[in-house]
Write a structure and sequence with these properties.
InterPro entries: Homeodomain-like_sf. It comes from Hymenobacter lapidarius. This is Winged helix-turn helix domain-containing protein. The chain is mostly helical. The protein has a domain of about 60 residues. Helix 1 runs antiparallel to helix 2 and helix 2 packs antiparallel against helix 3.
Length: about 130
């Protein structure tokens, strides 16, 4: 049995959590606000975890973080998650490429041969027979 970790919410804190839960475009923030609201209503961490899709340990961790930091503590901190593969500058440079805007010739040559036909290996490049 887990220890009791029920947040005591006054009316202004409950209203602030409900507003973020209803209006935030961020799904994870809405989920975390929902779990705090459910815990404040007296639900068990296992029940809350089943509703929001988290384990009871994560539920208790988010409630603890809310009690320490408030709604700001429910937001994902910077630096978490996968880093972007394309930077903003690279994305802007690619969207400003002249061949995308004017329809001019591409900066690389087209492949020779039939454009719609499949690429076929020449007989000399066939796979050795013992592999498959």
């Amino acid at each position: 049995m887990s220890r009791v970790n029920t947040p005591q919410l006054d009316e202004s804190a409950r209203t602030a959590l409900e507003d973020v839960y209803k209006q935030s475009p961020n799904h994870t923030l809405r989920q975390r606000c929902q779990l705090v609201l459910l815990k404040a209503a007296g639900r068990a961490p296992l029940d809350v975890g089943q509703v929001v899709g988290l384990c009871r340990v994560s539920v208790d961790s988010w409630v603890k973080r809310y009690q320490q930091e408030g709604i700001k503590g429910l937001q994902t901190k910077p630096g978490r998650g996968r880093k972007p593969l394309v930077t903003v500058a690279d994305d802007q440079a690619a969207s400003a490429a002249p061949w995308l805007k004017t329809g001019s010739a591409l900066p690389w040559p087209r492949r020779s041969g039939k454009a719609s036909g499949p690429l076929v290996r020449p007989p000399s490049a066939a796979m050795p027979s013992g592999l498959f």
